[in-house]
Amino acid sequence: MRAPHVREGQRNLAAESIYEFGSRVGFWCLYWPFTSCGVPLTVFASAMVLERCPDLGVAIAATDWDICAHGLRRVEHYNPDLITERHHIARAYDIIIKLIGRATEGW
After folding, report:
1. Alpha-carbon Rg of the chain, whole angstroms?
2. What's the confidence (pLDDT) of residue 55?
């Protein structure tokens, strides 16, 4: 699946830069102040981001924060075929269990 505004065969550089910044910098800008103050929150976690950035999974696993699955990866979720959707959900669930050690609270 691809964003409708991105031509077939091209990368969505805007989306890629947002996700890259979030996993490299954005997460930690929230993690440190919230954990140091003991404030719980809900993490919307994309399974492939956790897989590619294992330090995020370790940090989240050390908290009691709620985990809400944000899918397997960044795709347009509004029009998948049923088989693909089921595969993505099952794979995301398995990855999150493996890396965080507990199931998501939401989807």
Report:
1. 15
2. 94
Q: Where are the alpha helices (DSSP H) in 38-81?
A: 47-52, 54-61
Other beta carbons within 10 angstroms of residue 100's beta carbon come to 23
What single-letter amino acid sits at 31?
Y
pTM recorded for the entire structure: 0.78
In tens, the pLDDT along 69-85 reads 888 887 666 677 889 88
Residue 1's pLDDT is what? Answer: 45
Strands (E) in 5-107, as ranges, are 42-45, 66-69
Q: Where are the beta strands (DSSP E) in the chain?
A: 42-45, 66-69
- Provide CB contacts within 8 A for 69, sequence distance 6+: 44, 45, 47, 89, 92, 93, 96, 104, 106, 107
Q: Which candidate, 86, 46, 99, 104, places its Cα nearest to that of 70?
A: 46
